[in-house]
Design goal:
Strands 2-1-5-6-7-8 form a six-stranded parallel sheet. Strands 3-4 form a two-stranded antiparallel ribbon. About 30% of the residues lie in helices and about 15% in strands. The longest helix has 19 residues. It is globular, with a radius of gyration of 18 Å. The protein has six helices and eight strands, in the order βααβββαβαββαβα. Helix 5 links the parallel strand 7 and strand 8. It is α/β, with parallel strands linked by helices and about 220 residues long.
């Protein structure tokens, strides 16, 4: 009698948060190379922020979204000091719903404004917010929110294992902004590349992504 096919090995399940002016679908399309690299390691689940972003002048409305705004007129500039953060609470509700209905998730991977938002979720989880439960985070082109209402989230070092990815020539989120966020994490791992504002997937980065994820992959497969 032929042996039955072995059951497929478990994959990590990772929640993916897009950048400002993206949505879940456009971020999925832009990370096709990453999905290919990680296909034997992780299932990537993409969701869309609830806050609709006004298209730039001359642009078609392509369902651009954001996780929060830095001004009351519903615009966002990462470098802008602000006393408001419209849309932030709505986005937390969307993330919480994703954890409840599509989770559990082993980790979170996020880009640009999504990465800044993910860092704040890490802080909320550490402070005891039971809506969120995950074991690691990958932050690509991340930064600290300049909203005064978020300052409390940077008061305690974040102990969650983290991998921070940033480019030397990023003109959207400058390298020093990503390096500033590093200081709020305990023992962060980094991938520094020579490119700009994107998720890098060349051979050197591929090895480092997999090396970072492997401990959790082995853990879930040994359960």
């Amino acid at each position: 009698m032929a042996n039955a096919d072995p059951s497929p090995q478990r994959l990590l399940k990772i929640l993916c948060l897009h950048g400002y002016r993206q949505n879940g679908q456009t971020f999925r399309e832009r990370t096709g190379s990453l999905r290919k690299i990680l296909k034997k390691h992780a299932e990537l689940v993409y969701i869309t922020a609830p806050n609709k972003v006004k298209p730039l002048e001359g642009e078609e409305d392509s369902d651009q979204r954001g996780w929060w705004f830095s001004a009351r007129d519903e615009t966002f500039v990462a470098q802008e000091q602000s006393d408001v953060h419209p849309g932030y609470e709505d986005s937390l509700d969307v993330i919480a719903k994703a954890f409840s209905e599509q989770g559990p998730f082993d980790g979170v991977m996020a880009f640009s404004q999504g990465a800044a938002f993910a860092a704040m979720i890490c802080a909320l989880q550490q402070s005891g917010d039971t809506r969120f439960s995950f074991s690691f985070v990958i932050i690509v082109a991340g930064f600290c929110s300049r909203s005064s209402g978020h300052a409390v989230l940077y008061k305690t070092p974040i102990t969650l294992p983290s991998l921070h990815v940033f480019g030397d020539t990023d003109r959207v989120i400058q390298k020093d902004m990503s390096e500033e966020l590093l200081t709020y994490f305990k023992d962060p791992k980094t991938i520094e590349h020579t490119g700009g504002h994107f998720v890098p997937t060349s051979a050197p980065q591929k090895k480092l992504y997999i090396a970072f994820l492997d401990p959790w992959l082995q853990e879930i497969r040994n359960r």
